[in-house]
Amino acid sequence: MPKNTSRKVPKGAEIIRTYDDFYAEIDAFEHGERNLLIVVGPPGTSKSTAARTRLKNARTIQGGSTPYRLYIELFENRDLPIVLDDADKIFRNKDGVFLLKLLTQTDATKVIQWNSNTTEIRRGELPAEFPTTSRTMIVANSWPQDDPDIAAVESRGHLVYFVPSFAEMHRYAAGFCGDPEVYEFIGEHLPYFDRLDLRLYYKARQFKATGERTGDGEAWKRYVRGQMMEAEKRVALDLLGDEMLSSDHQRAKEFSRITGLSGRTFYRYRTEIELRQGQAA
Questions:
Q1: pLDDT at 144
Q2: Do the strands 158-162 and 110-113 form a parallel or antiparallel pair, or are they unpaired?
Q3: Cα–Cα distance for residue pair 74/101, rounded to 1 Å
Q4: Residues with Cβ < 8 Å from 114, sequence gap 6 or more?
Q5: Cα gap 25→160, rounded to integer Å
Q6: Is the dihedral of CA 233, 168, 4, 150 positive or negative?
Q7: Is the pLDDT of residue 1 over 60?
Q8: Which residues contact 125 (CB under 8 A, 6 or more apart)?
């Protein structure tokens, strides 16, 4: 049973970089073209919000539910599309994984069962098994690797890794930020973030409101700067944009000279910067 999940890109996943492509997958699920859709990716990209707002007829079940509570929810909402939101916890429990394997069968009608005689089952308030035609969308920040039970679930569906670039996330934030100054300030500093979370736009507005009330108009900018990348990665970013250095080999040597860290660390930072900021091919 998987005790840990990995935040790495899952093997075999389709990488999705834009909100339009992400919405297209959700819409395909809504129209019955995906029996099982698995969406994995970093937190703070609005995965859960997109699922809730675009799947009006689905039942969203929070991943913090116990496996038995999940069983009850599946019974009470049988035949409806199911969204398992923040499902990471379910992967770590053998009963949760067992339910996932039953729920994600490729048959049009699946039989879900609970293998212990609970009070509700003894009283006849809940069946020990029931049929359902529910299709399933799983939303998670990480995905178990090298586990045969999870691999069986994965093989039945379409696995996507949603990792929008910072620029793509910033364009998306234009639709809800509501404060041009906050929006522009974050946009000007996108290259300096190690990780961007869409909640930053909301939080910056809150800090700004507090600063206006208390007379500290720069508090929100300090907060935003505090969310940026660590100093060593900032050096790597600056070197990547240095036209005087003609190769990454030269940049790695200069990185080691400045920071005292290894060239391998430079290449790791380079990969992270390119992936998260949309500069990778």
A1: 85
A2: unpaired
A3: 13
A4: 68, 71, 121, 126, 128, 129
A5: 9
A6: negative
A7: no
A8: none
What tokens does 270 get? 């380079």
CA 13 – CA 86 distance, rounded (Å)? 18
Measured CA to CA in angstroms, residue 218 lies from 52, 90, 212, 256 at distances of: 35, 42, 9, 34
CA distance 86 to 217: 36
Task: List strand residue ranges (DSSP E) for 59-198, in order.
Answer: 59-62, 82-85, 110-113, 129-132, 136-140, 158-162
Position 226, amino acid: G
In whole angstroms, what is the distance from residue 111 CA to residue 103 CA? Answer: 8
Report how far residue 210's alpha carbon sits from residue 226's, in angstroms, rounded to the nearest whole number: 17
Q: What is the pTM of this model?
A: 0.81
Structure tokens at 160: 């996507």
What is the tens place of the pLDDT at every residue in 209-245? 999 999 999 999 999 988 888 889 889 988 998 999 9
Torsion of CA 218, 221, 223, 228, to 10 degrees: -150
Q: Give the three-class secondary structure for 161.
A: strand
Q: 38: which DSSP letter? A: E
What are the structure tokens assigned to 101, written together? 């394997």
